[in-house]
Write a structure and sequence with these properties.
The complex is a heterodimer of chains A (66) and B (328).
Chain A lengths: L1 E6 L3 E6 L20 E5 L2 E3 L9 E6 L5
Parallel strand pairs in A: 1-5
Antiparallel strand pairs in A: 1-2, 3-4, 3-5
Chain B lengths: L11 E3 L4 E3 L1 H18 L13 E6 L4 H14 L5 E9 L5 H16 L2 E6 H4 L4 H7 L6 H19 L4 E3 L4 H13 L3 H12 L14 E2 L7 H10 L15 H16 L3 H20 L15 E2 L6 E2 L5 H11 L1
Parallel strand pairs in B: 3-4, 3-6, 4-5, 6-7
Antiparallel strand pairs in B: 1-2, 8-9
Classes of the chains: A mainly beta (66), B alpha/beta (328).
Protein backbone atom coordinates (compact mmCIF):
# COMPACT_ATOMS: atom_id res chain seq x y z
CA UNK A 1 0.00 0.00 0.00
CA UNK A 2 1.07 3.62 -0.55
CA UNK A 3 1.18 6.03 2.38
CA UNK A 4 1.95 9.75 2.27
CA UNK A 5 4.49 10.50 5.01
CA UNK A 6 5.14 14.10 6.02
CA UNK A 7 8.19 14.64 8.21
CA UNK A 8 7.08 17.93 9.74
CA UNK A 9 9.25 20.84 8.69
CA UNK A 10 11.38 18.69 6.37
CA UNK A 11 9.87 16.68 3.52
CA UNK A 12 6.81 14.79 2.30
CA UNK A 13 7.16 11.52 0.42
CA UNK A 14 4.97 8.67 -0.75
CA UNK A 15 6.16 5.46 0.86
CA UNK A 16 5.21 1.98 -0.41
CA UNK A 17 5.02 -0.68 2.31
CA UNK A 18 3.62 -4.21 2.69
CA UNK A 19 -0.07 -4.47 3.62
CA UNK A 20 0.81 -5.70 7.11
CA UNK A 21 3.41 -2.95 7.73
CA UNK A 22 3.60 -1.08 11.04
CA UNK A 23 3.97 2.67 11.56
CA UNK A 24 7.62 2.05 12.43
CA UNK A 25 8.13 0.61 8.92
CA UNK A 26 7.11 3.98 7.43
CA UNK A 27 10.21 5.53 9.01
CA UNK A 28 12.79 3.30 7.34
CA UNK A 29 13.23 5.37 4.13
CA UNK A 30 13.93 8.47 6.25
CA UNK A 31 16.60 6.83 8.40
CA UNK A 32 14.62 7.79 11.51
CA UNK A 33 14.38 5.67 14.65
CA UNK A 34 10.97 5.20 16.33
CA UNK A 35 12.78 6.40 19.46
CA UNK A 36 13.31 9.90 18.07
CA UNK A 37 9.89 10.61 16.50
CA UNK A 38 6.18 10.33 17.11
CA UNK A 39 3.89 9.25 14.26
CA UNK A 40 0.66 11.25 14.14
CA UNK A 41 -2.58 10.11 12.51
CA UNK A 42 -5.09 12.93 12.24
CA UNK A 43 -3.03 14.84 14.75
CA UNK A 44 -2.97 12.07 17.40
CA UNK A 45 0.17 10.08 18.25
CA UNK A 46 -0.11 6.33 17.55
CA UNK A 47 2.00 3.43 18.90
CA UNK A 48 4.69 2.72 16.28
CA UNK A 49 4.34 -1.08 16.57
CA UNK A 50 0.75 -1.02 15.30
CA UNK A 51 -0.36 -1.90 11.73
CA UNK A 52 -0.84 1.06 9.39
CA UNK A 53 -4.54 1.87 8.96
CA UNK A 54 -4.40 5.16 7.09
CA UNK A 55 -2.99 6.59 3.87
CA UNK A 56 -1.49 9.72 5.40
CA UNK A 57 0.68 10.30 8.50
CA UNK A 58 2.73 13.10 9.97
CA UNK A 59 6.05 12.37 11.63
CA UNK A 60 7.08 14.71 14.41
CA UNK A 61 10.80 14.79 15.19
CA UNK A 62 11.06 14.87 18.96
CA UNK A 63 14.82 14.66 19.32
CA UNK A 64 17.29 16.90 17.59
CA UNK A 65 20.88 16.15 16.87
CA UNK A 66 22.65 12.88 16.34
CA UNK B 1 -4.97 -0.37 19.85
CA UNK B 2 -6.35 0.18 23.33
CA UNK B 3 -4.47 1.42 26.37
CA UNK B 4 -3.36 -1.41 28.70
CA UNK B 5 -5.14 0.30 31.58
CA UNK B 6 -8.39 1.61 30.05
CA UNK B 7 -10.41 1.52 26.82
CA UNK B 8 -9.02 4.72 25.31
CA UNK B 9 -6.74 4.66 22.25
CA UNK B 10 -3.06 4.12 23.03
CA UNK B 11 -0.73 6.97 21.96
CA UNK B 12 2.56 5.21 22.58
CA UNK B 13 4.33 1.88 22.84
CA UNK B 14 7.11 1.42 25.37
CA UNK B 15 8.92 -1.56 23.86
CA UNK B 16 11.27 -1.87 26.87
CA UNK B 17 8.26 -2.45 29.13
CA UNK B 18 5.91 -4.08 26.61
CA UNK B 19 3.20 -1.52 27.36
CA UNK B 20 0.74 0.56 25.32
CA UNK B 21 -0.67 3.61 27.06
CA UNK B 22 -3.26 6.30 26.30
CA UNK B 23 -2.47 9.98 26.72
CA UNK B 24 -3.65 10.16 30.31
CA UNK B 25 -2.04 6.95 31.56
CA UNK B 26 1.18 7.77 29.72
CA UNK B 27 1.43 11.22 31.33
CA UNK B 28 0.66 9.74 34.76
CA UNK B 29 3.39 7.12 34.24
CA UNK B 30 5.98 9.83 33.42
CA UNK B 31 5.00 11.79 36.53
CA UNK B 32 5.16 8.64 38.67
CA UNK B 33 8.67 7.80 37.48
CA UNK B 34 9.91 11.31 38.27
CA UNK B 35 8.33 11.27 41.75
CA UNK B 36 9.72 7.82 42.46
CA UNK B 37 13.22 8.96 41.48
CA UNK B 38 12.89 12.02 43.74
CA UNK B 39 11.83 9.73 46.61
CA UNK B 40 14.49 7.10 46.00
CA UNK B 41 17.24 9.68 45.73
CA UNK B 42 16.10 11.22 49.03
CA UNK B 43 15.92 14.62 47.32
CA UNK B 44 13.72 16.21 49.96
CA UNK B 45 15.70 16.21 53.18
CA UNK B 46 13.83 15.20 56.33
CA UNK B 47 15.19 18.42 57.90
CA UNK B 48 13.05 20.55 55.58
CA UNK B 49 10.10 22.16 57.39
CA UNK B 50 7.54 24.84 56.50
CA UNK B 51 9.53 27.21 58.74
CA UNK B 52 12.87 26.26 57.20
CA UNK B 53 12.14 25.07 53.66
CA UNK B 54 14.71 23.80 51.18
CA UNK B 55 15.47 25.89 48.11
CA UNK B 56 15.65 23.95 44.85
CA UNK B 57 17.10 25.77 41.88
CA UNK B 58 16.00 24.30 38.54
CA UNK B 59 18.10 24.94 35.44
CA UNK B 60 15.47 26.08 32.91
CA UNK B 61 16.74 26.37 29.34
CA UNK B 62 13.33 26.40 27.65
CA UNK B 63 14.01 23.08 25.90
CA UNK B 64 11.61 20.17 26.41
CA UNK B 65 13.59 18.50 29.21
CA UNK B 66 13.87 21.43 31.59
CA UNK B 67 10.32 22.59 30.79
CA UNK B 68 8.90 19.15 31.66
CA UNK B 69 11.03 18.95 34.81
CA UNK B 70 9.93 22.40 36.00
CA UNK B 71 6.28 21.59 35.24
CA UNK B 72 6.31 18.28 37.16
CA UNK B 73 8.22 19.78 40.11
CA UNK B 74 5.69 22.58 40.36
CA UNK B 75 2.77 20.11 40.16
CA UNK B 76 4.37 17.97 42.86
CA UNK B 77 5.87 20.54 45.23
CA UNK B 78 4.21 23.83 44.23
CA UNK B 79 1.98 23.73 47.33
CA UNK B 80 4.47 21.99 49.58
CA UNK B 81 5.69 24.55 52.14
CA UNK B 82 8.90 22.56 52.67
CA UNK B 83 10.19 23.39 49.16
CA UNK B 84 10.87 26.71 47.43
CA UNK B 85 11.38 26.42 43.68
CA UNK B 86 13.52 28.91 41.75
CA UNK B 87 13.90 28.61 37.97
CA UNK B 88 17.27 29.79 36.63
CA UNK B 89 17.77 30.51 32.92
CA UNK B 90 21.05 31.35 31.25
CA UNK B 91 21.46 33.45 28.10
CA UNK B 92 24.64 32.26 26.40
CA UNK B 93 24.63 35.03 23.81
CA UNK B 94 23.32 32.97 20.90
CA UNK B 95 21.37 35.30 18.65
CA UNK B 96 17.83 34.17 17.86
CA UNK B 97 18.08 30.68 19.32
CA UNK B 98 18.29 31.60 22.98
CA UNK B 99 15.98 34.60 22.67
CA UNK B 100 13.15 32.30 21.55
CA UNK B 101 13.77 29.67 24.19
CA UNK B 102 13.90 32.35 26.91
CA UNK B 103 10.41 33.43 25.82
CA UNK B 104 9.31 29.83 26.50
CA UNK B 105 10.93 30.03 29.97
CA UNK B 106 9.22 33.30 30.84
CA UNK B 107 5.85 31.96 29.65
CA UNK B 108 6.22 28.77 31.69
CA UNK B 109 7.43 30.48 34.88
CA UNK B 110 4.56 32.99 34.68
CA UNK B 111 1.93 30.32 34.10
CA UNK B 112 3.29 28.28 37.04
CA UNK B 113 3.77 31.33 39.23
CA UNK B 114 7.34 30.48 40.26
CA UNK B 115 10.31 32.77 40.81
CA UNK B 116 12.39 33.04 37.64
CA UNK B 117 15.91 34.46 37.34
CA UNK B 118 17.78 35.11 34.07
CA UNK B 119 21.55 35.57 33.88
CA UNK B 120 23.75 36.13 30.83
CA UNK B 121 27.29 35.10 29.88
CA UNK B 122 27.78 38.63 28.57
CA UNK B 123 26.93 40.30 31.90
CA UNK B 124 28.81 37.87 34.12
CA UNK B 125 31.69 36.66 31.99
CA UNK B 126 31.94 39.38 29.35
CA UNK B 127 31.65 36.93 26.46
CA UNK B 128 28.91 35.79 24.06
CA UNK B 129 28.84 32.27 22.63
CA UNK B 130 28.40 33.59 19.07
CA UNK B 131 31.79 35.32 19.42
CA UNK B 132 33.39 32.40 21.29
CA UNK B 133 32.33 29.99 18.52
CA UNK B 134 33.81 32.29 15.90
CA UNK B 135 37.12 32.97 17.67
CA UNK B 136 37.59 29.45 19.06
CA UNK B 137 41.08 30.11 20.47
CA UNK B 138 41.47 26.60 21.92
CA UNK B 139 40.36 24.82 18.75
CA UNK B 140 37.52 22.99 20.55
CA UNK B 141 33.83 22.37 19.92
CA UNK B 142 31.69 25.36 21.02
CA UNK B 143 29.91 23.01 23.47
CA UNK B 144 33.21 22.50 25.31
CA UNK B 145 33.43 26.20 26.22
CA UNK B 146 29.70 26.53 26.76
CA UNK B 147 29.56 23.55 29.14
CA UNK B 148 32.26 25.07 31.36
CA UNK B 149 30.61 28.50 31.39
CA UNK B 150 27.10 27.12 31.99
CA UNK B 151 28.20 24.90 34.89
CA UNK B 152 30.03 27.83 36.45
CA UNK B 153 27.03 30.18 36.28
CA UNK B 154 24.50 27.54 37.36
CA UNK B 155 26.72 26.66 40.29
CA UNK B 156 27.52 30.21 41.42
CA UNK B 157 23.95 31.53 41.08
CA UNK B 158 22.46 28.46 42.74
CA UNK B 159 24.82 29.10 45.66
CA UNK B 160 23.95 32.82 45.66
CA UNK B 161 20.22 31.99 45.84
CA UNK B 162 20.90 29.79 48.85
CA UNK B 163 20.06 26.59 46.96
CA UNK B 164 20.08 23.28 48.84
CA UNK B 165 19.80 21.36 45.53
CA UNK B 166 20.48 22.14 41.89
CA UNK B 167 18.21 20.20 39.53
CA UNK B 168 18.70 19.69 35.80
CA UNK B 169 16.58 18.05 33.11
CA UNK B 170 18.93 15.28 31.96
CA UNK B 171 16.87 12.35 30.61
CA UNK B 172 17.60 8.62 30.29
CA UNK B 173 19.19 9.01 26.84
CA UNK B 174 21.51 11.80 28.06
CA UNK B 175 22.68 9.73 31.02
CA UNK B 176 23.10 6.51 29.04
CA UNK B 177 25.17 8.43 26.46
CA UNK B 178 27.39 9.90 29.18
CA UNK B 179 27.76 6.48 30.83
CA UNK B 180 28.80 4.87 27.56
CA UNK B 181 31.18 7.71 26.71
CA UNK B 182 32.90 7.48 30.10
CA UNK B 183 33.17 3.73 29.68
CA UNK B 184 34.47 3.84 26.09
CA UNK B 185 37.00 6.51 27.07
CA UNK B 186 38.16 4.22 29.88
CA UNK B 187 37.69 7.02 32.38
CA UNK B 188 36.89 5.23 35.64
CA UNK B 189 37.73 8.28 37.72
CA UNK B 190 35.13 10.25 35.80
CA UNK B 191 32.62 7.45 36.50
CA UNK B 192 33.41 7.77 40.22
CA UNK B 193 32.94 11.55 40.06
CA UNK B 194 29.65 11.14 38.17
CA UNK B 195 28.30 9.07 41.10
CA UNK B 196 29.17 11.59 43.81
CA UNK B 197 28.24 14.62 41.68
CA UNK B 198 24.74 13.66 40.60
CA UNK B 199 24.03 9.96 40.18
CA UNK B 200 23.95 8.49 43.66
CA UNK B 201 21.07 8.90 46.10
CA UNK B 202 21.71 11.66 48.65
CA UNK B 203 22.36 9.18 51.44
CA UNK B 204 24.86 7.23 49.32
CA UNK B 205 26.99 10.10 48.06
CA UNK B 206 30.01 11.56 49.68
CA UNK B 207 29.33 15.04 51.02
CA UNK B 208 30.73 17.62 48.64
CA UNK B 209 30.55 20.69 50.78
CA UNK B 210 32.19 22.85 48.09
CA UNK B 211 29.30 22.53 45.66
CA UNK B 212 25.51 22.72 45.66
CA UNK B 213 24.43 19.06 45.36
CA UNK B 214 22.91 18.18 41.99
CA UNK B 215 20.14 15.83 40.94
CA UNK B 216 18.52 14.70 37.71
CA UNK B 217 14.96 13.63 38.42
CA UNK B 218 14.13 12.87 34.75
CA UNK B 219 16.91 10.37 34.35
CA UNK B 220 14.60 7.33 34.24
CA UNK B 221 12.50 8.74 31.39
CA UNK B 222 13.57 8.20 27.75
CA UNK B 223 14.10 11.37 25.73
CA UNK B 224 11.25 10.60 23.35
CA UNK B 225 8.83 10.24 26.25
CA UNK B 226 9.90 13.57 27.75
CA UNK B 227 9.21 15.23 24.38
CA UNK B 228 5.91 13.41 23.95
CA UNK B 229 4.85 14.50 27.43
CA UNK B 230 5.64 18.14 26.57
CA UNK B 231 3.66 17.77 23.33
CA UNK B 232 0.63 16.13 24.94
CA UNK B 233 0.53 18.52 27.91
CA UNK B 234 0.95 21.41 25.46
CA UNK B 235 3.88 22.87 27.42
CA UNK B 236 5.72 25.88 25.91
CA UNK B 237 8.91 24.02 24.97
CA UNK B 238 11.34 25.41 22.43
CA UNK B 239 12.35 22.71 19.95
CA UNK B 240 15.11 24.16 17.73
CA UNK B 241 18.65 22.85 17.91
CA UNK B 242 21.45 25.17 19.00
CA UNK B 243 23.14 26.60 15.85
CA UNK B 244 26.57 25.87 17.38
CA UNK B 245 25.76 22.24 18.33
CA UNK B 246 28.74 20.13 17.38
CA UNK B 247 29.25 17.34 19.87
CA UNK B 248 30.20 14.88 17.15
CA UNK B 249 31.17 12.05 19.49
CA UNK B 250 27.99 12.29 21.56
CA UNK B 251 25.99 12.29 18.29
CA UNK B 252 27.71 9.10 17.22
CA UNK B 253 26.93 7.47 20.57
CA UNK B 254 23.32 8.69 20.33
CA UNK B 255 22.87 6.96 16.94
CA UNK B 256 24.46 3.80 18.28
CA UNK B 257 22.22 3.73 21.36
CA UNK B 258 19.01 4.33 19.37
CA UNK B 259 19.95 1.48 17.03
CA UNK B 260 20.69 -0.82 19.99
CA UNK B 261 17.42 0.19 21.64
CA UNK B 262 15.49 -0.61 18.45
CA UNK B 263 17.02 -4.08 18.19
CA UNK B 264 17.23 -4.79 21.94
CA UNK B 265 14.54 -2.86 23.83
CA UNK B 266 15.64 -1.94 27.35
CA UNK B 267 19.31 -1.36 26.49
CA UNK B 268 19.36 2.18 27.91
CA UNK B 269 17.75 1.06 31.18
CA UNK B 270 20.15 -1.87 31.60
CA UNK B 271 23.19 0.29 30.80
CA UNK B 272 22.18 2.67 33.58
CA UNK B 273 21.33 -0.07 36.09
CA UNK B 274 24.77 -1.64 35.67
CA UNK B 275 26.60 1.69 35.40
CA UNK B 276 25.13 3.02 38.64
CA UNK B 277 26.26 -0.04 40.53
CA UNK B 278 29.75 0.16 39.02
CA UNK B 279 29.89 3.92 39.59
CA UNK B 280 29.18 3.42 43.30
CA UNK B 281 32.00 0.87 43.56
CA UNK B 282 34.32 3.21 41.68
CA UNK B 283 33.32 6.13 43.91
CA UNK B 284 34.15 4.14 47.08
CA UNK B 285 37.52 3.18 45.72
CA UNK B 286 38.54 6.67 44.65
CA UNK B 287 37.24 8.53 47.70
CA UNK B 288 39.58 9.64 50.48
CA UNK B 289 42.60 8.67 48.42
CA UNK B 290 41.75 4.94 48.72
CA UNK B 291 44.49 2.42 48.02
CA UNK B 292 44.65 3.40 44.36
CA UNK B 293 42.96 6.64 45.17
CA UNK B 294 43.40 9.94 43.48
CA UNK B 295 45.76 12.22 45.37
CA UNK B 296 44.50 15.18 43.38
CA UNK B 297 40.92 14.58 44.49
CA UNK B 298 38.33 17.05 45.68
CA UNK B 299 39.97 17.42 49.06
CA UNK B 300 42.63 19.59 47.41
CA UNK B 301 40.20 22.19 46.08
CA UNK B 302 41.14 25.80 46.62
CA UNK B 303 39.79 29.08 45.31
CA UNK B 304 40.46 30.48 41.86
CA UNK B 305 42.75 33.53 42.15
CA UNK B 306 40.51 35.52 39.83
CA UNK B 307 36.90 34.57 40.47
CA UNK B 308 36.95 32.60 43.72
CA UNK B 309 35.34 29.49 42.18
CA UNK B 310 36.40 26.13 43.57
CA UNK B 311 39.29 24.69 41.59
CA UNK B 312 42.21 22.32 42.00
CA UNK B 313 44.49 24.83 40.21
CA UNK B 314 45.46 28.47 40.79
CA UNK B 315 43.15 29.76 38.08
CA UNK B 316 39.94 27.87 37.22
CA UNK B 317 39.16 26.48 33.77
CA UNK B 318 36.43 29.05 33.13
CA UNK B 319 38.84 31.95 33.78
CA UNK B 320 41.53 30.36 31.58
CA UNK B 321 39.03 29.93 28.72
CA UNK B 322 37.80 33.52 29.03
CA UNK B 323 41.36 34.77 29.01
CA UNK B 324 42.01 32.81 25.79
CA UNK B 325 38.85 34.20 24.16
CA UNK B 326 39.72 37.76 25.13
CA UNK B 327 43.28 37.37 23.82
CA UNK B 328 42.08 36.00 20.46
Amino acid sequence: MDVTVEVVGEETRAVRVADDATYADLLAPFDLSPHEVSVLVEGRPVPEDQPVETDRVKVLRLIKGG
Amino acid sequence: MECDKCDRDAVMHAAYAGTHLCEEHFCVSVEKRVRRRIREDGLLSSDATPEEPETWVVGLSGGKDSVVLTHILEETFGRDPRVELVALSIHEGIEGYRDESLDACVELAESLGIRHEVVAYEDDLGVRMDDVAEKDPMNMAPCAYCGVFRRDLLESYAAAFGADKLLTGHNLDDEAQTALMNFLEGDVKQVAKHFDASLGGFDEREEQSDFVPRAKPLRDVPEKEVALYAHLRDLPAHVAECPHASEAYRGEIQRLLLKLEENHPGTRHSIMAGYEELAELAARRYRNGGEDGADDGDAALGECERCGSKTARDVCRKCRLIEAVEAA
